[in-house]
Amino acid sequence: MNPLDTVTGTLVAGLVLSVVLVYVARAIAGA
Amino acid sequence: MELALFDRWLHILAGVTWIGLLYYFNFVQAQAMGQAAADEGGPGPAAIGKYIAPRALLWFRWAAVVTWLTGAYYLEAVPQYSLSGAFMLGIGAANLQLTSIGLGAWLGTIMLFNVWVLIWPNQKKILGIVAANDEEKARAKRIAFLASRSNVMMSLPMLLLMQGSVHGLPMG
């Protein structure tokens, strides 16, 4: 099932992506 | 510099309009349309599709353009950022502010693409603004829906990274 089919799945996917991208930002910047 | 501060204000106003309507579509209208369609003997979803959705989509898609343009201008107008540096994600610059706003700018740009290339052309078919048969409408609904939901998903890190570039990121 696609998580984007439900609001909850969409928000959870957004939260996971947020955490991942914060770590990506820190890795790129070396911070 | 003074102009950049007004530009930033306009960027936030347009962004609130854009993302606010995105959340309206995903958290309110889509569910209401489904409920109205299933409500036998009720007024049905036609009025939403005829009177509300086109007006909401008008503000939605143009607010997206204004948000992107004012954001791009701001990146170039203030000394701590640059448009090219942001879109290069500040690689090699060892600047978390620049990398953070850059990732946010990429997400916002993908979201603008989704609005104009995937959501709006398909919404025109769904709402009958352009002709489409039932099969084309069903396909248009799925594409517009997934693009819209993708934008909701991306709006979470986009807002976190944009405000975080100035006010700090969590999980440090």
Report on this structure.
The complex is a heterodimer of chains A (31) and B (172). Chain A has 31 residues and is mainly α. Chain A has one domain. In chain A, 74% of the residues lie in helices and 0% in strands. Chain A contains 1 helix and no strands. The radius of gyration of chain A is 12 Å and the shape is rod-shaped. Chain A starts with 6 loop residues before the first helix and ends with a helix. The model of chain A has no long low-confidence stretch (mean pLDDT 96). Chain B is mainly α. Chain B has one domain. Chain B is built from 5 helices and no strands. Chain B has helices at 2-38, 46-77, 83-87, 96-126, 134-167. The longest helix of chain B has 37 residues, at 2-38. The two termini of chain B are 31 Å apart.
Share in β-strands of chain A: under 5%
- Parts with pLDDT < 50 across at least 5 consecutive residues of chain B: none
Helix content of chain A: over 70%
Instruction: Tell me the total number of β-strands of chain B.
Output: 0
Unreliable stretches of chain A: none
What is the number of beta strands of chain A? 0
Broad shape of chain B: elongated
Instruction: Report helical residue fraction of chain B.
Output: over 70%
Structural class by SSE content of chain A: mainly alpha
Mean pLDDT of chain B comes to: 97
The average pLDDT of chain A is 96
User: Which pair of chains has the greatest number of interface residues, and how are they split between the two chains?
Assistant: A-B, 22 and 29 residues
Number of DSSP helices of chain A?
1
Number of discrete domains of chain A: 1
